[in-house]
């Protein structure tokens, strides 16, 4: 059913922090600058209710293929995270006919979000990154040792 696709699509964007450097758990902390942290506002609050995806006409006709606004917005949430090192790989995965380019800016998604988030805007920003029109800003993250 539709929700099976929704969960599969969310899972496919690998919604977790991925780093390239080996991490010693409990030994380091990754300090995000306030400016970098601000970029996650309006993205992390998503409750995965699926209202946006199920109100999207592109999703009605292609829910088995099109990632849909919720999954694309969550992909963007990790792409833009200053602590995540896999933006390039994440963007590469979205460079197909069933991701950002399937959205036709109809805005149903943004109009129906109960959390007043803006998936259409997140898709537009992701599309710019996928197309190479804009670049992920340089991370200001500081890695520090933990004080015992
Ligand atoms: S409608 Fe809003 S809260 Fe619900 S899944 Fe979409 S973006 Fe997330
Ligand atoms: S803006 Fe894109 S994702 Fe949102 S409802 Fe329209 S086509 Fe769907």
From TrEMBL:
NCBIfam families (alphabetical): dhsB (TIGR00384)
Molecular function terms, GO-annotated: 2 iron, 2 sulfur cluster binding; 3 iron, 4 sulfur cluster binding; 4 iron, 4 sulfur cluster binding; metal ion binding; succinate dehydrogenase (quinone) activity
The entry's keywords: 2Fe-2S, 3Fe-4S, 4Fe-4S, Electron transport, Iron, Iron-sulfur, Metal-binding, Oxidoreductase, Transport, Tricarboxylic acid cycle
Signal peptide: none
Biological processes, Gene Ontology terms: respiratory electron transport chain; tricarboxylic acid cycle
Catalysed reactions listed for this entry: a quinone + succinate = fumarate + a quinol
Protein name, UniProt field: succinate dehydrogenase
A GO CC term attached to the entry: mitochondrial membrane
Pfam assignment, any one: Fer4_17
CC cofactor: [4Fe-4S] cluster; [3Fe-4S] cluster; [2Fe-2S] cluster
Assigned protein family: Belongs to the succinate dehydrogenase/fumarate reductase iron-sulfur protein family.
InterPro entries from the UniProt entry: 4Fe4S_Fe-S-bd (IPR017896), 4Fe4S_Fe_S_CS (IPR017900), Helical_ferredxn (IPR009051), SDH/FRD_Iron-Sulfur (IPR050573), Succ_DH/fum_Rdtase_Fe-S (IPR004489)
Record pathway: Carbohydrate metabolism; tricarboxylic acid cycle
Family annotation (SUPFAM superfamilies): alpha-helical ferredoxin (SSF46548)
Keyword Electron transport: yes
E.C. number: 1.3.5.1
Residue ranges occupied by any 4Fe-4S ferredoxin-type domain in the UniProt entry: 36-66
Keyword Amino-acid biosynthesis: no
């Amino acid at each position: 059913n539709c929700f099976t696709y929704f969960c599969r699509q969310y899972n496919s964007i690998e919604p977790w922090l991925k780093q390239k450097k080996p991490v010693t758990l409990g030994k380091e902390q990754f300090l995000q600058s306030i400016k970098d942290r601000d970029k996650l506002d309006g993205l992390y609050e998503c409750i995965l209710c699926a209202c946006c995806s199920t109100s999207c006409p592109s999703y009605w006709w292609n829910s088995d293929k099109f990632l849909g606004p919720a999954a694309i917005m969550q992909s963007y949430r990790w792409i833009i995270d200053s602590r995540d090192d896999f933006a390039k790989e994440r963007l590469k995965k979205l460079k197909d006919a069933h991701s950002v380019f399937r959205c036709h800016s109809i805005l149903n998604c943004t109009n129906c979000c109960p959390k007043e988030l803006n998936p259409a805007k997140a898709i537009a920003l992701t599309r710019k990154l996928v197309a190479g029109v804009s670049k992920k800003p340089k991370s200001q993250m500081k890695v520090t040792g933990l004080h015992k």
